[in-house]
Amino acid sequence: MAKAKGDIIIDVEICKGCELCVEACPENIIETAKQVNNKGYLYVVKVEDSCTGCTNCALVCPEAAITVYRKVKKKKELVTKISNVTSDITLKVGK
Amino acid sequence: MSEQTIIDEIKTEENLVYKKPEALKDTPFHYCPGCAHGVVHRLIAEVIDEMGIQSETIGVAPVGCSVFAYNYIDVDMTEAAHGRASAVATGIKRVLPDRLVFSYQGDGDLAAIGTGETIHTCNRGENVLIIFINNGIYGMTGGQMAPTTLENMKSTTTPFGRDVSVMGYPLKITELVAALPGTQYVTRQAVYKPGLVRKTKKAIRKSFELQKENKNGTCFIEVVANCPSNWKMTPVESNKWLEENMLPFYQLGDIKTPNGRK
Predict the structure, then answer these.
(1) For a tag site, which of A86, B9, B79, B138 has the least CB within 10 Å?
(2) Structural domain of residue B232, as residue ranges?
(3) B36 interaction partners in chain A (CB closer than 8 Å)
């Protein structure tokens, strides 16, 4: 199983089961559930944990029912640390 | 560490990359499953959030499926008579020139009953944004033929397909308004794929920015959309049909940009 890098939360009560997110998901981790919500629509659920947080499903969702989380890459943290150090150095040089 | 704890760790505020925009109310949409109206409403709300213009934006809702647009987008909105949304937007913009005014119209509203208002608003070069949702059919009233219905496309009033010798040719109103000197930014977009959704959002943002800069001229965005209910298809099928049949006729891309470049 691929390691999870992101996660989605689907608001099942406003989902209308149009399955556009199922089509848009590159990892194929969204599927139609076997139950209906209060409105009577077959809603969609996340079935696997290999989400990459690409936001494709949320972009095509006509109901704005999907919230997406994505893990911040460690590379970016390194870059910010390095840039902080360089800014310190330039400050000292300036003095 | 188990997979579940990793996922729980991911769900924090700093890792949030996408959520429902604040300018969109909590009211659930009344649109059919898979309808592109929801996506375009959300994109407008996102742009309003990003630019921080919620208090200075005024929208004009049309008659058609999106008649209740004011129930969803959390900005000042008004309702216009059928086809007259661009005329109402003109009035609002002239009285309140510091506000950002947009009208949101469908193809039956803008291209059929409101052709005169649309053409003259664009020809006067009113500094408003017109968002035009083109699904090639009258969606709200049950799928009758609209001016934008494609050749040989079936609708409830053209059960054997649109016969151009009797009913005329489909109307490309976006190209029509691009030919007028009053428009500054005319583009045609779609929202059935994630990449195209991003492009449409950029176009909406660009139009609001141009309006804020007070450059004179109308911005006109056409969004080629689906209508699963009246095309009698599933949402996924309707998007495929849109790609195969609508897009060769309604080609996507910028038709007119402010500095003349394509």
Answers:
(1) A86
(2) 31-256
(3) 62
